[in-house]
């Protein structure tokens, strides 16, 4: 079996969560099982790729399927809704991290336009003003009920004697523009240290996991970073069952001409973006990636987003929704947060932790 086919099978194994992909029943008759055994896998691959081309984008390099020598029958990424034609930038085949958004998608809600509940109950208003939905997923009306999400009680009684918040980094090697030997804290791990300290000052007991889940054998390897992170944080949760809040801090990747910054509290501050894995494709829920806490996750980020729109106008980008799960299924208050991008300075990223800590504290206290 040639190298390309082996690569495709490995990709499908991760993508579909099984030893072999499952062929669509309507395609079964088209497979000639009398040929080389690899022919059936090839046919199944073609069906899967034709149906889910958006999940095959090589997001760690920005290369499309054609660049990887893969076959295309759908006409490419732009036909699936990427407004810039740039594709995604970070993550991996199985569980990717984020997308460079258009200027319209990055527009933050001004504080003076903080909406009333009547507006939020309008599905179209809610989705247009608060969310950016990647074509790999959907946000159905029966799930996006604003009143239910806004009024959901996510409060947690502070108990400094036991860990209650976990901060970690699936992509620990992400850094900012001025990172280097003279400024080693200009990284997502350094930013995590700052957030942990600020939350501890507010009375929370925090564990900051600095494990390098994207380093394997001494080299950068994001191909299974989310899998390794799941193993690591699951061990931490088993040892510390009192943890109820999980935050995965990342740094986005954008065009070099884009600077995601606003003035917050009189300081230049990197914009943040809550990233929501939906565990669903446009065809429906992904059965092998269940998230029993999806509604709680949605409530958690929307409540912080609303509070930010009122208290820190311009600080947040729209909540970004994508199809996979991103390890957001372990606790009700789980969030993946993109803190700025590679064009931000470390200072701007660290400055963002003050407002973020305040938003987290307020939601967890039921305010």
Reconstruct the topology from this structure.
Blueprint: H1 3-16, H2 38-51, E1 88-90, E2 98-99, H3 103-106, H4 117-120, H5 123-130, E3 131-133, H6 146-151, E4 165-168, H7 188-201, E5 206-208, E6 215-216, E7 219-220, H8 225-239, E8 245-252, E9 261-264, E10 267-270, E11 272-277, E12 280-281, E13 284-285, H9 294-311, E14 319-322, E15 333-341, H10 346-351, H11 353-364
Parallel strand pairs: 3-14, 4-5, 4-8, 8-15, 11-14
Antiparallel strand pairs: 1-2, 6-7, 9-10, 11-15, 12-13
Helix pairs in contact: 1-2, 7-11, 9-11
Distance between the termini: 59 Å
Question: What is the general shape?
Answer: globular
Q: How many strands? A: 15
- In terms of DSSP E residues, the strand content is 15-25%
Strand order of the largest sheet: 3-14-11-15-8-4-5
Q: Whole-number average pLDDT?
A: 78
Helix percentage range: 25-40%
- The computed structural class is alpha/beta
Low-confidence segments: 1-6, 13-112
Rg, nearest Å:
21 Å
**Helix-strand pattern, N to C?**
HHEEHHHEHEHEEEHEEEEEEHEEHH
Number of helices: 11
Largest sheet: 7 strands, mixed
């Amino acid at each position: 079996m040639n190298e390309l086919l082996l690569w495709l099978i490995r990709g499908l194994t991760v993508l579909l969560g099984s030893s072999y992909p499952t062929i669509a029943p309507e395609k079964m008759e088209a497979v000639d099982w009398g040929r080389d055994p690899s022919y059936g896998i090839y046919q199944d691959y073609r069906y899967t790729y034709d149906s889910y081309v958006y999940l095959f984008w090589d997001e760690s390099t920005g290369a499309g399927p054609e660049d990887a020598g893969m076959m295309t029958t759908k006409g490419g990424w732009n036909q699936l809704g990427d407004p810039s034609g740039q594709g995604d930038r970070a993550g991996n085949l199985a569980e990717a991290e984020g997308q460079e958004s258009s200027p319209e998608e990055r527009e933050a809600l001004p504080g003076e336009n903080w909406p009333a509940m009547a507006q939020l109950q309008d599905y179209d208003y809610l989705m247009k003003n608060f969310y950016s939905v990647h074509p790999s997923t959907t946000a159905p009306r029966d799930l996006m009920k604003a009143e239910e999400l806004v009024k959901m009680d996510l409060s947690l009684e502070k108990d400094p004697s036991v860990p209650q918040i976990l901060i970690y980094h699936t992509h620990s090697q992400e850094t900012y523009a001025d990172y280097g030997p003279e400024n080693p804290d200009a990284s997502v791990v350094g930013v995590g240290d700052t957030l942990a300290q600020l939350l501890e000052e507010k009375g929370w007991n925090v564990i900051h996991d600095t494990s390098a889940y994207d380093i394997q054998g001494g080299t950068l390897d994001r191909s299974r970073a989310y899998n390794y992170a799941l193993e690591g944080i699951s061990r931490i949760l088993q040892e510390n069952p009192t943890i109820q809040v999980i935050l995965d801090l990342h740094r986005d990747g954008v065009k070099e001409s884009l600077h995601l910054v606003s003035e917050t509290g009189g300081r230049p501050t990197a914009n943040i973006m809550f990233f929501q894995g939906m565990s669903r494709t446009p065809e429906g829920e992904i059965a092998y990636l269940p998230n029993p806490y999806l509604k709680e996750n949605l409530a958690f980020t929307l409540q912080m987003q609303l509070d930010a729109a009122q208290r820190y106008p311009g600080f947040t980008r729209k909540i970004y929704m994508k199809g996979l799960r991103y390890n957001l299924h372990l606790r009700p208050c789980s969030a993946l947060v993109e803190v700025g991008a590679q064009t931000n300075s470390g200072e701007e990223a660290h400055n963002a932790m003050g407002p973020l800590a305040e938003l987290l504290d307020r939601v967890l206290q039921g305010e």
